[in-house]
Protein backbone atom coordinates (compact mmCIF):
# COMPACT_ATOMS: atom_id res chain seq x y z
CA UNK A 1 0.00 0.00 0.00
CA UNK A 2 1.31 3.43 -0.94
CA UNK A 3 1.90 5.62 2.09
CA UNK A 4 -0.01 8.88 2.14
CA UNK A 5 1.78 12.11 2.98
CA UNK A 6 1.03 14.17 6.09
CA UNK A 7 1.39 17.96 6.17
CA UNK A 8 0.89 20.60 8.86
CA UNK A 9 -1.62 23.28 7.94
CA UNK A 10 -2.24 24.95 11.30
CA UNK A 11 -0.53 25.53 14.65
CA UNK A 12 -1.56 26.73 18.09
CA UNK A 13 0.52 27.40 21.18
CA UNK A 14 -0.03 28.18 24.84
CA UNK A 15 3.37 28.56 26.52
CA UNK A 16 5.36 30.29 29.25
CA UNK A 17 6.67 32.78 26.66
CA UNK A 18 3.55 33.45 24.61
CA UNK A 19 0.00 32.26 24.07
CA UNK A 20 -0.05 32.30 20.28
CA UNK A 21 2.35 30.72 17.80
CA UNK A 22 3.72 34.11 16.75
CA UNK A 23 4.25 35.36 20.32
CA UNK A 24 5.87 32.06 21.27
CA UNK A 25 8.19 32.02 18.25
CA UNK A 26 9.17 35.68 18.53
CA UNK A 27 10.10 35.06 22.18
CA UNK A 28 12.24 32.06 21.26
CA UNK A 29 14.10 34.00 18.61
CA UNK A 30 15.26 36.65 21.08
CA UNK A 31 15.96 34.14 23.86
CA UNK A 32 13.21 35.23 26.26
CA UNK A 33 13.25 33.34 29.54
CA UNK A 34 9.81 32.20 30.73
CA UNK A 35 11.04 30.91 34.10
CA UNK A 36 10.18 32.68 37.35
CA UNK A 37 8.91 32.21 40.92
CA UNK A 38 6.06 29.73 41.37
CA UNK A 39 2.69 31.48 41.71
CA UNK A 40 0.32 28.51 41.35
CA UNK A 41 0.46 27.85 45.09
CA UNK A 42 1.87 29.44 48.21
CA UNK A 43 5.40 28.26 48.78
CA UNK A 44 6.52 27.38 52.28
CA UNK A 45 10.02 26.95 53.63
CA UNK A 46 9.59 23.20 53.27
CA UNK A 47 9.80 23.50 49.47
CA UNK A 48 13.32 23.40 48.11
CA UNK A 49 12.11 24.27 44.62
CA UNK A 50 10.76 27.76 44.04
CA UNK A 51 10.88 28.27 40.25
CA UNK A 52 8.70 27.11 37.38
CA UNK A 53 7.90 28.08 33.81
CA UNK A 54 4.24 28.98 34.16
CA UNK A 55 1.84 30.11 31.45
CA UNK A 56 1.07 33.80 31.94
CA UNK A 57 -1.96 35.97 31.16
CA UNK A 58 -4.05 33.03 29.99
CA UNK A 59 -7.79 33.54 29.70
CA UNK A 60 -9.59 30.58 28.19
CA UNK A 61 -12.81 32.57 27.83
CA UNK A 62 -11.22 34.59 25.04
CA UNK A 63 -11.64 31.41 23.00
CA UNK A 64 -14.08 29.14 24.86
CA UNK A 65 -17.57 29.73 26.24
CA UNK A 66 -17.26 30.38 29.98
CA UNK A 67 -19.59 27.53 30.90
CA UNK A 68 -17.63 25.05 28.75
CA UNK A 69 -14.32 26.29 30.15
CA UNK A 70 -15.48 25.63 33.73
CA UNK A 71 -16.04 21.98 32.84
CA UNK A 72 -12.46 21.57 31.63
CA UNK A 73 -9.28 21.22 33.66
CA UNK A 74 -6.55 23.69 32.78
CA UNK A 75 -4.56 21.21 30.68
CA UNK A 76 -7.68 20.58 28.58
CA UNK A 77 -8.28 24.32 28.26
CA UNK A 78 -4.73 24.72 26.99
CA UNK A 79 -5.28 21.95 24.44
CA UNK A 80 -8.60 23.39 23.31
CA UNK A 81 -7.16 26.87 22.83
CA UNK A 82 -4.25 25.40 20.87
CA UNK A 83 -6.72 23.50 18.69
CA UNK A 84 -8.87 26.59 18.10
CA UNK A 85 -5.80 28.56 17.02
CA UNK A 86 -4.59 25.72 14.79
CA UNK A 87 -7.97 25.31 13.12
CA UNK A 88 -8.20 29.04 12.42
CA UNK A 89 -4.76 29.04 10.78
CA UNK A 90 -5.58 25.93 8.74
CA UNK A 91 -8.70 27.45 7.19
CA UNK A 92 -10.51 24.10 7.40
CA UNK A 93 -14.29 24.05 7.23
CA UNK A 94 -14.95 21.00 9.38
CA UNK A 95 -18.68 21.04 8.70
CA UNK A 96 -17.93 20.07 5.11
CA UNK A 97 -15.86 17.03 6.11
CA UNK A 98 -16.76 13.40 6.81
CA UNK A 99 -16.58 13.35 10.62
CA UNK A 100 -15.34 9.75 10.61
CA UNK A 101 -12.23 10.95 8.72
CA UNK A 102 -11.40 13.51 11.44
CA UNK A 103 -9.48 12.78 14.63
CA UNK A 104 -7.65 14.12 17.67
CA UNK A 105 -4.60 12.39 19.16
CA UNK A 106 -3.14 14.39 22.04
CA UNK A 107 -0.26 13.59 24.37
CA UNK A 108 -0.79 14.24 28.10
CA UNK A 109 1.69 13.03 30.66
CA UNK A 110 -0.23 13.26 33.93
CA UNK A 111 -3.67 14.84 33.59
CA UNK A 112 -5.00 17.33 36.12
CA UNK A 113 -2.95 16.97 39.29
CA UNK A 114 -4.40 20.19 40.72
CA UNK A 115 -7.94 18.80 40.80
CA UNK A 116 -6.74 15.43 42.12
CA UNK A 117 -4.95 17.22 44.94
CA UNK A 118 -7.91 19.48 45.79
CA UNK A 119 -10.51 16.71 45.68
CA UNK A 120 -8.31 14.47 47.84
CA UNK A 121 -8.07 17.23 50.41
CA UNK A 122 -11.86 17.65 50.27
CA UNK A 123 -12.37 13.89 50.75
CA UNK A 124 -10.17 13.83 53.85
CA UNK A 125 -11.56 16.99 55.42
CA UNK A 126 -15.24 16.91 54.40
CA UNK A 127 -16.03 13.37 53.33
CA UNK A 128 -16.98 11.55 50.12
CA UNK A 129 -20.29 13.35 49.58
CA UNK A 130 -18.44 16.58 48.87
CA UNK A 131 -16.52 15.23 45.86
CA UNK A 132 -17.38 17.08 42.65
CA UNK A 133 -19.43 15.10 40.10
CA UNK A 134 -17.02 16.49 37.48
CA UNK A 135 -13.95 15.16 39.30
CA UNK A 136 -13.33 12.15 37.05
CA UNK A 137 -14.31 13.74 33.70
CA UNK A 138 -11.94 16.65 34.31
CA UNK A 139 -8.82 14.86 35.53
CA UNK A 140 -8.42 11.95 33.10
CA UNK A 141 -5.76 12.65 30.46
CA UNK A 142 -7.91 11.66 27.46
CA UNK A 143 -10.11 14.71 28.03
CA UNK A 144 -7.71 16.91 26.06
CA UNK A 145 -8.55 14.90 22.93
CA UNK A 146 -12.12 14.21 24.05
CA UNK A 147 -13.09 17.85 24.49
CA UNK A 148 -11.63 18.78 21.10
CA UNK A 149 -13.58 15.94 19.51
CA UNK A 150 -16.82 17.00 21.19
CA UNK A 151 -16.33 20.64 20.18
CA UNK A 152 -15.75 19.84 16.52
CA UNK A 153 -17.64 16.59 16.03
CA UNK A 154 -14.57 14.48 15.31
CA UNK A 155 -15.67 10.86 15.03
CA UNK A 156 -12.51 9.21 13.70
CA UNK A 157 -9.42 8.23 15.74
CA UNK A 158 -9.64 10.15 19.01
CA UNK A 159 -7.43 9.16 21.93
CA UNK A 160 -4.75 10.20 24.37
CA UNK A 161 -1.13 9.07 24.39
CA UNK A 162 0.62 8.88 27.75
CA UNK A 163 4.32 8.07 27.63
CA UNK A 164 5.47 10.58 30.25
CA UNK A 165 7.65 13.28 28.68
CA UNK A 166 7.57 11.61 25.26
CA UNK A 167 3.76 11.85 25.10
CA UNK A 168 3.48 14.81 22.74
CA UNK A 169 5.92 13.39 20.20
CA UNK A 170 4.38 9.92 20.38
CA UNK A 171 0.95 11.48 19.82
CA UNK A 172 2.16 13.32 16.74
CA UNK A 173 3.80 10.16 15.46
CA UNK A 174 0.60 8.14 15.89
CA UNK A 175 -1.36 10.87 14.10
CA UNK A 176 1.21 10.72 11.30
CA UNK A 177 0.72 6.95 11.08
CA UNK A 178 -3.08 7.31 11.01
CA UNK A 179 -2.85 9.63 8.02
CA UNK A 180 -0.11 7.61 6.30
CA UNK A 181 -2.19 4.47 6.54
CA UNK A 182 -5.37 6.10 5.25
CA UNK A 183 -7.41 6.03 8.46
CA UNK A 184 -7.91 9.80 8.65
CA UNK A 185 -7.73 12.94 6.53
CA UNK A 186 -7.25 15.43 9.38
CA UNK A 187 -5.97 14.94 12.93
CA UNK A 188 -5.52 17.52 15.66
CA UNK A 189 -2.36 16.45 17.45
CA UNK A 190 0.36 17.56 19.85
CA UNK A 191 0.56 17.73 23.63
CA UNK A 192 -0.82 19.53 26.68
CA UNK A 193 0.03 19.66 30.38
CA UNK A 194 -0.54 21.56 33.63
CA UNK A 195 0.97 20.00 36.74
CA UNK A 196 2.54 22.78 38.80
CA UNK A 197 1.02 21.81 42.16
CA UNK A 198 2.34 21.22 45.65
CA UNK A 199 2.04 17.47 45.21
CA UNK A 200 3.79 17.33 41.83
CA UNK A 201 6.59 19.72 42.75
CA UNK A 202 7.17 17.82 46.00
CA UNK A 203 7.11 14.51 44.13
CA UNK A 204 9.62 15.52 41.48
CA UNK A 205 11.76 17.14 44.19
CA UNK A 206 11.80 13.86 46.11
CA UNK A 207 13.10 12.23 42.91
CA UNK A 208 15.87 14.88 42.84
CA UNK A 209 14.69 15.68 39.32
CA UNK A 210 14.05 19.43 39.71
CA UNK A 211 16.52 22.29 39.85
CA UNK A 212 16.69 23.94 43.26
CA UNK A 213 18.34 27.07 41.86
CA UNK A 214 16.84 30.38 42.96
CA UNK A 215 18.18 32.13 39.85
CA UNK A 216 15.88 31.88 36.81
CA UNK A 217 18.92 32.25 34.57
CA UNK A 218 20.74 29.28 36.13
CA UNK A 219 17.83 26.89 36.65
CA UNK A 220 17.08 25.33 33.25
CA UNK A 221 20.51 25.19 31.63
CA UNK A 222 20.64 22.25 29.19
CA UNK A 223 24.10 20.96 28.23
CA UNK A 224 25.78 23.27 30.76
CA UNK A 225 28.16 21.47 33.12
CA UNK A 226 26.36 23.04 36.11
CA UNK A 227 22.94 21.65 35.16
CA UNK A 228 21.19 20.28 38.21
CA UNK A 229 17.63 19.37 37.27
CA UNK A 230 14.71 20.45 35.15
CA UNK A 231 12.25 23.27 35.68
CA UNK A 232 8.53 22.46 35.62
CA UNK A 233 6.79 23.87 32.57
CA UNK A 234 3.28 23.78 31.16
CA UNK A 235 1.14 24.69 28.17
CA UNK A 236 0.11 23.12 24.88
CA UNK A 237 1.32 22.80 21.33
CA UNK A 238 -1.36 21.60 18.88
CA UNK A 239 -1.17 21.25 15.09
CA UNK A 240 -3.61 20.37 12.36
CA UNK A 241 -2.05 17.42 10.56
CA UNK A 242 -3.63 16.79 7.18
CA UNK A 243 -3.34 14.33 4.34
CA UNK A 244 -1.46 16.08 1.53
CA UNK A 245 -3.94 15.53 -1.32
CA UNK A 246 -6.76 16.65 0.97
CA UNK A 247 -4.88 19.85 1.82
CA UNK A 248 -3.91 20.44 -1.81
CA UNK A 249 -7.49 19.99 -3.02
CA UNK A 250 -8.78 22.76 -0.80
CA UNK A 251 -5.87 25.11 -1.56
CA UNK A 252 -4.49 25.05 1.97
CA UNK A 253 -1.31 26.87 2.95
CA UNK A 254 1.10 24.11 3.96
CA UNK A 255 3.53 24.99 6.75
CA UNK A 256 5.73 21.86 6.86
CA UNK A 257 5.59 18.13 6.21
CA UNK A 258 6.01 15.32 8.74
CA UNK A 259 8.15 12.72 6.98
CA UNK A 260 9.50 10.36 9.64
CA UNK A 261 8.66 8.86 13.02
CA UNK A 262 9.98 6.17 15.30
CA UNK A 263 9.62 5.10 18.90
CA UNK A 264 11.67 2.69 21.01
CA UNK A 265 12.05 1.75 24.66
CA UNK A 266 15.21 1.44 26.74
CA UNK A 267 13.61 -1.38 28.77
CA UNK A 268 16.07 -0.41 31.47
CA UNK A 269 14.81 1.70 34.39
CA UNK A 270 11.66 3.49 35.54
CA UNK A 271 13.29 6.95 35.59
CA UNK A 272 16.88 6.81 34.32
CA UNK A 273 17.85 6.57 30.64
CA UNK A 274 20.14 3.69 29.68
CA UNK A 275 23.61 5.22 29.71
CA UNK A 276 24.83 4.20 26.25
CA UNK A 277 21.84 5.84 24.57
CA UNK A 278 21.53 2.82 22.25
CA UNK A 279 17.72 2.71 22.16
CA UNK A 280 17.45 6.47 21.68
CA UNK A 281 20.00 6.28 18.86
CA UNK A 282 18.00 3.48 17.27
CA UNK A 283 14.86 5.64 17.36
CA UNK A 284 16.74 8.39 15.55
CA UNK A 285 18.09 5.96 12.97
CA UNK A 286 14.67 4.42 12.36
CA UNK A 287 13.02 7.83 12.02
CA UNK A 288 15.57 8.78 9.35
CA UNK A 289 14.98 5.47 7.59
CA UNK A 290 11.24 6.10 7.74
CA UNK A 291 11.81 9.52 6.15
CA UNK A 292 14.09 8.05 3.48
CA UNK A 293 17.01 10.26 4.44
CA UNK A 294 20.51 9.95 5.95
CA UNK A 295 22.34 11.86 8.69
CA UNK A 296 23.75 14.19 6.03
CA UNK A 297 20.22 15.49 5.36
CA UNK A 298 19.36 16.64 8.89
CA UNK A 299 19.79 20.40 9.27
CA UNK A 300 18.76 20.85 12.91
CA UNK A 301 17.96 18.80 16.01
CA UNK A 302 15.52 20.16 18.58
CA UNK A 303 16.80 18.23 21.58
CA UNK A 304 14.94 16.87 24.57
CA UNK A 305 17.54 18.79 26.62
CA UNK A 306 15.93 18.83 30.06
CA UNK A 307 18.88 20.24 32.08
CA UNK A 308 19.34 16.99 33.98
CA UNK A 309 22.76 15.38 34.14
CA UNK A 310 22.03 12.03 32.52
CA UNK A 311 19.62 13.34 29.90
CA UNK A 312 22.15 15.49 28.11
CA UNK A 313 24.93 12.93 28.55
CA UNK A 314 22.85 10.10 27.10
CA UNK A 315 21.22 12.28 24.45
CA UNK A 316 24.62 13.46 23.23
CA UNK A 317 25.87 9.87 23.12
CA UNK A 318 22.79 8.84 21.15
CA UNK A 319 23.27 11.63 18.62
CA UNK A 320 26.90 10.64 18.14
CA UNK A 321 25.90 7.01 17.64
CA UNK A 322 23.11 7.80 15.18
CA UNK A 323 24.91 10.51 13.23
CA UNK A 324 28.58 9.57 13.43
CA UNK A 325 30.84 12.40 12.28
CA UNK A 326 27.80 14.35 11.10
CA UNK A 327 26.91 14.93 14.77
CA UNK A 328 29.56 17.65 14.96
CA UNK A 329 28.06 19.52 12.00
CA UNK A 330 24.44 19.63 13.11
CA UNK A 331 23.19 22.51 15.29
CA UNK A 332 21.32 21.24 18.36
CA UNK A 333 19.31 23.37 20.76
CA UNK A 334 16.91 22.98 23.66
CA UNK A 335 14.05 25.46 24.01
CA UNK A 336 13.49 24.06 27.51
CA UNK A 337 16.11 26.62 28.51
CA UNK A 338 13.31 29.18 27.90
CA UNK A 339 10.02 27.33 28.45
CA UNK A 340 11.03 24.73 31.02
CA UNK A 341 9.98 21.11 30.72
CA UNK A 342 6.35 20.88 29.62
CA UNK A 343 6.28 17.09 30.22
CA UNK A 344 3.46 15.77 28.00
CA UNK A 345 3.21 19.13 26.24
CA UNK A 346 6.89 19.29 25.35
CA UNK A 347 6.76 17.35 22.08
CA UNK A 348 3.92 19.42 20.64
CA UNK A 349 5.45 22.76 21.60
CA UNK A 350 8.87 21.73 20.32
CA UNK A 351 7.49 20.43 17.02
CA UNK A 352 5.95 23.84 16.39
CA UNK A 353 9.31 25.44 17.11
CA UNK A 354 10.71 23.17 14.38
CA UNK A 355 7.95 24.22 11.96
CA UNK A 356 8.81 27.87 12.49
CA UNK A 357 12.55 27.19 12.29
CA UNK A 358 12.09 25.49 8.91
CA UNK A 359 9.84 28.27 7.64
CA UNK A 360 12.09 31.13 8.63
CA UNK A 361 15.52 29.54 8.41
CA UNK A 362 16.28 30.39 12.02
CA UNK A 363 17.51 28.17 14.86
CA UNK A 364 16.38 29.12 18.38
CA UNK A 365 19.15 29.18 20.97
CA UNK A 366 19.91 27.27 24.14
CA UNK A 367 20.01 30.25 26.47
CA UNK A 368 22.01 30.71 29.68
CA UNK A 369 24.72 28.33 28.53
CA UNK A 370 27.93 29.31 30.35
CA UNK A 371 30.04 26.36 31.48
CA UNK A 372 30.96 23.77 28.82
CA UNK A 373 30.94 20.12 29.82
CA UNK A 374 33.92 18.29 28.25
CA UNK A 375 31.75 15.22 27.62
CA UNK A 376 29.18 17.32 25.74
CA UNK A 377 31.12 18.67 22.79
CA UNK A 378 28.51 19.22 20.07
CA UNK A 379 27.05 22.48 18.72
CA UNK A 380 24.31 23.43 21.18
CA UNK A 381 23.62 26.89 19.66
CA UNK A 382 24.58 28.68 22.88
CA UNK A 383 22.76 31.85 23.94
CA UNK A 384 22.12 33.42 20.52
CA UNK A 385 19.97 31.99 17.76
CA UNK A 386 21.25 31.89 14.22
CA UNK A 387 20.02 32.22 10.68
CA UNK A 388 20.59 29.10 8.61
CA UNK A 389 18.82 27.51 5.68
CA UNK A 390 17.11 24.36 6.96
CA UNK A 391 15.59 21.41 5.11
CA UNK A 392 14.97 18.65 7.69
CA UNK A 393 14.51 19.12 11.45
CA UNK A 394 14.47 16.30 13.99
CA UNK A 395 12.70 16.58 17.34
CA UNK A 396 13.29 13.95 20.00
CA UNK A 397 11.81 13.34 23.44
CA UNK A 398 12.20 10.65 26.07
CA UNK A 399 10.14 9.79 29.10
CA UNK A 400 10.16 7.87 32.37
CA UNK A 401 9.71 4.20 31.63
CA UNK A 402 12.39 4.30 28.94
CA UNK A 403 10.24 5.80 26.18
CA UNK A 404 12.01 7.37 23.21
CA UNK A 405 10.12 9.19 20.44
CA UNK A 406 11.48 10.96 17.36
CA UNK A 407 9.78 12.83 14.55
CA UNK A 408 11.30 14.44 11.47
CA UNK A 409 9.80 17.45 9.74
CA UNK A 410 10.66 18.80 6.30
CA UNK A 411 10.56 22.36 5.04
CA UNK A 412 7.66 22.78 2.66
CA UNK A 413 8.61 23.36 -0.95
CA UNK A 414 5.77 25.14 -2.73
CA UNK A 415 6.89 23.54 -5.99
CA UNK A 416 6.26 20.00 -4.74
Automatic annotation (TrEMBL):
Keyword Transferase belongs to the record: yes
InterPro entries: 3-oxoacyl-ACP_synth-2 (IPR017568), Beta-ketoacyl_synthase (IPR000794), Ketoacyl_synth_AS (IPR018201), Ketoacyl_synth_C (IPR014031), Ketoacyl_synth_N (IPR014030), PKS_Beta-ketoAc_synthase_dom (IPR020841), Thiolase-like (IPR016039)
Location of the Ketosynthase family 3 (KS3) domain: 3-411
Keywords: Acyltransferase, Fatty acid biosynthesis, Fatty acid metabolism, Lipid biosynthesis, Lipid metabolism, Transferase
Catalytic residues in the record: 165
Annotated GO CC locations: cytosol
E.C. number(s) listed in UniProt: 2.3.1.179
Entries under SMART domains matching the protein: PKS_KS
Main enzyme class: transferase
Statement: the UniProt record of this protein carries the keyword Lipid biosynthesis: yes
Gene Ontology MF terms: 3-oxoacyl-[acyl-carrier-protein] synthase activity
Any Gene Ontology biological process: fatty acid elongation
Organism superkingdom: Bacteria
Pathway terms, separated by semicolons: Lipid metabolism; fatty acid biosynthesis
Catalyzed reaction equations: (9Z)-hexadecenoyl-[ACP] + malonyl-[ACP] + H(+) = 3-oxo-(11Z)-octadecenoyl-[ACP] + holo-[ACP] + CO2; a fatty acyl-[ACP] + malonyl-[ACP] + H(+) = a 3-oxoacyl-[ACP] + holo-[ACP] + CO2
One family name in Pfam for this protein: ketoacyl-synt
Entries under NCBIfam families matching the protein: fabF, PRK07314.1
PANTHER family in UniProt: 3-OXOACYL-[ACYL-CARRIER-PROTEIN] SYNTHASE, MITOCHONDRIAL, POLYKETIDE SYNTHASE-RELATED
Function: Involved in the type II fatty acid elongation cycle. Catalyzes the elongation of a wide range of acyl-ACP by the addition of two carbons from malonyl-ACP to an acyl acceptor. Can efficiently catalyze the conversion of palmitoleoyl-ACP (cis-hexadec-9-enoyl-ACP) to cis-vaccenoyl-ACP (cis-octadec-11-enoyl-ACP), an essential step in the thermal regulation of fatty acid composition.
Family listed: Belongs to the thiolase-like superfamily. Beta-ketoacyl-ACP synthases family.
Identification of the protein by name: 3-oxoacyl-[acyl-carrier-protein] synthase 2
Biological source species: Bianquea renquensis
